[in-house]
Amino acid sequence: MHDRKRVLVTGGAGFLGSHLCERLLADGADVLCADNFFTGTKDNIAALIGQPHFELLRHDVTFPLYVEVDEIYNLACPASPVHYQFDPVQTTKTSVHGAINMLGLAKRTRAKIFQASTSEVYGDPEVHPQSEDYRGNVNPIGPRACYDEGKRCAETLFFDYYRQHGLNIRVARIFNTYGPRMQPNDGRVVSNFILQALKGEAITLFGDGAQSRAFCYVDDLIDGFVRLMAAPDDVTGPINLGNPVEFTIRALAEMVIELTGSKSVIETRPLPVDDPVQRCPDIALAHERLDWHPSIALEDGLKKTITYFKGLI
Ligand code: NAD
Ligand code: UDP
User: What ligand is nearest to the CA atom of residue 154?
Assistant: First the structure.
C-alpha cells in the first residue's frame, strides 16, 4: 500500500527535470527519477539523493521500463541543438521509442502521462504568436529535424494512445526556458551570453540579433507542468507553456552585459541553418484552462541565473 502519489520523471537529472523533481517532492510525492545522464548530471539532483521519497534510476527510455507509478512526466530528451545534433539518430529514438515505452508503461499501470513537447513543433513559424492550432513549418530533412520531427511523432503517439487506448494524456509545448542548472556547455543563448559576460569574453551574437525569442523562467514553467497534470481530464493539450514577452537577441545580449557589469563586447557570427526568425507563445489556452501565466520578469530571472553561473566558475 502507498499513501503518496508515485511519480516517475524521465530526464529527471536534467535542467527542467531536476526542478520538477524538487517541486514534486515538496508537494509530497514519491519521486522516481529515471535518466541515462546523457545531458543530465547527478550534481543537478545532489540535494535530492538520499531523501527518503526520492529514488534515482539509471535508465535509457529507448528501453522498456517496468515500474509501478501513478503519474509519468516524460522529459527525457536532449533539448539544446548542440546536444540533440550530436547523435541525431539517438535523438529520434529517444523521442519516438521513449514515447512508445512510456506510453506502454502508462497503459499497463493506467498512470496519467505528461509529454514535454516543444515549440519546435512549429518549426520556423509563419504566424505570430503561435497558438496550438497552428500546424507548423518544419523542414523534415534539416539538421533540426531529428528533434522537431521526433517531438511531432511523440505527440502523434500520445494522441493515438489517447484515442485508441483511452490514456489520460497531457501534452505541453514548451517555449524557451532558462534558469539555474541550464547546462553551461549547451550553446543556448542565455547560458552562452551569461558565461561569456562573466568571463569577459566576446558575446557571440548570431546574425544581426534582430531575431526574437520569449524567455520563461524555470519556476514559472514547472508551475505550469504541475497545473496541467492536475487539470480536469479533458485538458489533454497540446497546450503552450512559455513567457509571451518577446525580446530580440541583441536586447538580451545588452541586458546580460548590464546585469553582470561586464566589459564584454558584442561580436556577430553567422546565423545557424533553419534558425527561426521569431518565436513567441500564445498562452491564452493555458491562461483559460490552467489559470497559468508567468510571473517572473526576464531581468529578475536573469539575476538568479547569473548568481548560479557565478557559483559554477
Ligand atoms: P536537459 O538536456 O537538461 O534534460 C534532458 C534529460 O534527459 C537529461 O537529464 C538527459 O540525460 C536525459 N535523457 C536524454 N536522453 C535520454 C534517454 N534516452 N533516456 C533517459 N534519459 C535521457 O534538457 P531540458 O531543458 O531539461 O529539457 C527537458 C525536456 O523539455 C526535453 O524533453 C526537452 O525537449 C523539453 N523542452 C525543453 C525546453 C527548454 O527550453 N529547456 C524547451 C522545449 C522543450
Ligand atoms: N544565439 C546567439 N548567440 C549564441 C547562441 C544563440 O545569438 O551564442 C541565438 C540563436 O541564433 C537564436 C537565439 O539566440 O536565434 C536562441 O538560440 P537558442 O539556441 O538558445 O534557442 P532556440 O534557437 O532553440 O530558440
Answer: 1
